[in-house]
Design brief:
Blueprint lengths: L3 E6 L7 H16 L4 E6 L1 H4 L6 H18 L7 E4 L5 H10 L4 H4 L3 H7 L8 H15 L5 E3 L5 H17 L10 E3 L34 H10 L18 H13 L4 H8 L4 H27 L2 H30 L2
Parallel strand pairs: 1-2, 2-3, 4-5
Helix pairs in contact: 3-12, 4-7, 4-13, 7-8, 9-12, 10-11, 10-12
This protein binds adenosine monophosphate (AMP) and tryptophan.
Length: 333
C-alpha cells in the first residue's frame, strides 16, 4: 500500500548539506516512488518562534521552495505549500495543545538547546513548537515522516498526542499515528569545524557548513579548511569512533555517493586526508553545484515560485480543512 508522506522545513535561510543529506535527498526519493503521496511544507509558522526580519522571511520562503524544486522534488507529483496559508495548522495546534501535557513538553531537548541559559526569555511559541509540528502531521493522516535524527523526539511526542486524542475521545485510529523515516546512516551531519556539534544554520562560522547556495570555490575552500586529524584513514568503523571529524567527512562522502561508511573506508584505507579531501570536493561539487545554480536561477522567477505555493496551498487546504472540521465535531464544537 502507498504511504502518505509529510515533512516540513523551516524557511530560516542558509539551508545546508545537513538539511540536504538528512532530509531533502530522502524527500526526492520518496517523491519519485509513485506509490507515495507526498506533502512538503515550508513551515513559516515554526520559523517565527524566533525573531525574523519580515523581508528576509519572505525571501527565505521562496528560497526553500526553490531548494525543494532544485533538489528534484516535482511539484506536480507532490504538494509543496507554506503552512501559514492553511489556517487549520494554527487551529489544530491550539486544540492539540489542550491534549498534550506539560510534562511531555518539558522533556523536549531541542527547546532546551534553542532556549539556552535564559529560558525565561524564550518565546512561548518556541516551547509549544512540537505541538504545531504534531498538528502539521496529523492533519494530513501522514503515515510516514522523513526527518533528520534531531526530530526523532518531536515525532515521538506527535505519536503520544495522537494516541491520547484517540483514547480521550474513544475513537480508535482517528488520528493516524505516524512512523518516523530516519536514515540509518548519515541522519546527523556534523559541523565541519567541530565533529561533536551538528551542522546548523545558526552556527556563527560559515566555514562550519556547506550552504546549498555556496559556489564551487566556496565548497572546495570549506572542505580544505574542514577540521581533521593527522592519522591516515583506518580500515574499520570502530577505529573511527573517537575521530569525530574524520568520521563525519567520510560519512558525507558515503552519503553523497549513495554508498556506506564501510565501502568508503575500503576505497580510502591508509590514505591521508589531503588526498581524501580532493575526492570529497569532487563529489560534493558534482552533486551540490547543479542544485546551487538551479536555486539561483529559480530565485530570479519569483512569480513561478509563488505559483507553486499557490497551487500547493489549494490542495493542502482541501485536506486539512476537512480534517479539522472532523476534529471539531469530535470535540463537541
Ligand atoms: P530545519 O532546517 O531545522 O527545519 O530542518 C529541516 C530538516 O533537516 C529536518 O528534517 C532536520 O532533521 C534535518 N536536519 C537539519 N540539520 C541536520 C543535520 N545537521 N544533519 C542531518 N539532518 C539535519
Ligand atoms: N521541526 C522540524 C525541523 O525543524 C520542521 C517541521 C515542522 C516538520 N513541522 C514538521 C518536520 C512536520 C516534519 C513534519 O526540522
Amino acid at each position: 500500500m502507498g504511504k502518505k508522506i509529510f515533512s516540513g522545513v523551516q524557511p530560516t535561510g542558509n539551508l545546508h548539506l545537513g538539511n540536504y543529506l538528512g532530509a531533502i535527498k530522502n524527500f526526492v526519493d520518496l517523491n519519485n516512488d509513485n506509490e507515495n503521496k507526498c506533502i512538503f511544507c515550508v513551515v513559516d509558522l515554526h520559523a517565527i518562534t524566533v525573531k525574523q526580519d519580515p523581508k528576509e522571511l519572505k525571501n527565505n520562503i521562496r528560497e526553500t521552495v526553490a531548494t525543494f524544486v532544485a533538489s528534484g522534488i516535482d511539484h506536480k507529483k507532490s504538494v509543496i505549500f507554506n503552512q501559514s496559508k492553511v489556517p487549520a495548522h494554527a487551529e489544530g495546534a491550539w486544540i492539540l495543545s489542550c491534549v498534550a501535557r506539560m510534562g511531555w513538553l518539558n522533556r523536549m531537548t531541542q527547546f532546551k538547546e534553542k532556549a539556552g541559559k535564559d529560558k525565561e526569555k524564550a518565546s512561548i511559541g518556541l516551547y509549544s513548537y512540537p505541538i504545531l509540528m504534531a498538528a502539521d502531521i496529523l492533519l494530513y493522516d501522514a503515515t510516514h515522516v522523513p526527518v533528520g535524527e534531531d526530530q526523532k523526539q518531536h515525532l515521538e511526542l506527535c505519536r503520544d498526542i495522537a494516541q491520547k486524542f484517540n483514547n480521550d475521545f474513544k475513537i480508535d485510529n482517528f488520528l493516524q499515528v505516524p512512523e518516523p523515516l530516519i536514515q540509518k546512516e548519515f541522519s546527523r551531519i556534523m559541523s565541519l569545524k567541530d565533529g561533536s556539534k551538528k551542522m546548523s544554520k545558526s552556527e556563527l562560522s560559515d566555514l562550519s557548513r556547506i550552504n546549498l547556495t555556496d559556489s564551487k570555490d566556496e565548497m572546495i575552500n570549506k572542505i580544505k579548511k574542514a577540521k581533521t586529524d593527522s592519522l591516515p584513514i583506518p580500515e574499520t568503523i570502530g577505529e573511527l569512533d573517537k575521530r569525530l571529524e574524520a568520521k563525519n567527512l567520510i560519512g558525507i562522502y558515503a552519503s553523497l555517493t549513495n554508498s556506506t561508511l564501510d565501502k568508503s573506508l575500503e576505497i580510502f584505507v591508509g590514505k591521508n586526508f589531503s588526498e581524501f579531501k580532493e575526492k570529497l570536493s569532487q563529489v560534493l561539487v558534482a552533486k551540490i553545484d547543479p542544485i546551487s545554480l538551479e536555486i539561483k536561477k529559480l530565485l530570479n522567477d519569483k512569480s513561478y515560485l509563488d505559483q507553486i505555493l499557490l497551487e500547493g496551498v489549494e490542495k493542502a487546504d482541501l485536506i486539512a480543512s476537512n480534517k479539522i472540521k472532523k476534529i471539531k465535531e469530535i470535540i463537541g464544537f
